[in-house]
Amino acid sequence: MLTWTLKQLLAGALASASIMGSVQASELVIYTAHGETTSTPILDAFAQAHPDVKVTVVRGGTGEIVERLRAEAANPSADVMWGGPTQTFDENAALFQPYQSPSDADMVTSDPNHIWHPFTVLLQPLIISTKRVEAGKMPKTQEDMLSADFESAGGVIIPDPAKSGTGYTIISALAGNFGWDFTGKLAKTARLAPGSDDAFNAVRDGEAAAGWINEDLGAKWRAEGLPIEIIYPTDAVTGQIDAQAIVKGAPNLEDAKSFIDFLGTKAAHEIVRDATVRRSARQDITPPSVLPDLGSLNIISAVEPRPVVTARFHEARGK
């Protein structure tokens, strides 16, 4: 399996041509926002089930992937976009090809237009550096994230919503449920990370005091005994349905359909739960035991579309 990042692909015209030239016509090309921890167990299982399909993986933030797909729309290189909130696929439906996968009916939700196919239910609890924040000053709510204590202890950090699907989900959900007055204050005071992993790692490494994290990674880091605390706010927890879709004009359409179908199988979603500690979007898969019950949480999701959220967020930052 060949893996590239979008930064490599976008480094320049010659570099891009060279990299894409290495992709054979028979290869399934997947653009994914998932990191290796999430994607590798699934890709390994797909390779075992479909040994005749060669897979090339290109990784990048959700925003970067969408920009790449737009640039390539007249001559697509990718077959599948894997990862990102359903809202991203809805807002960019013209980039994708409808396909009715057999497993769509087994999911907690489905797209009536058959553009996107659910993968996981992904929440973003708070992540706090225990190196930076004392036990008695841990936040309990989203509104606590505006505390001056965090700013003096290393700051709150958030992924850029223009580049990160996680960042978009968090900002849009907070703005839609707490208003832009609160979210604007957060935008002004928070440090901005170029991507989700950058934000997560900054808190893990004690470079920032607090932020948000995808709960699967947070659970793993807690289990490893890293110097962090994971907190599900009592007022609201941001979350999204993560999805995948076939790129319109996919060069390897049949292999793309096979991958979409595989991602929806019960076997794949058991891997999702057991190997990646994520909540499956299938109705018949129980969630990981280390994660809190959804019924105990007030879950909020993105409200306004990404272009609106990105513009208002950066306007509030004044940068």
UniProtKB/TrEMBL annotation:
Pfam families: SBP_bac_11. SUPFAM superfamilies: Periplasmic binding protein-like II. This is 2-aminoethylphosphonate ABC transporter substrate-binding protein. Residues 1-25 form the signal peptide. It comes from the Bacteria. It comes from Pannonibacter phragmitetus. Keywords: Signal. The keyword Signal applies.
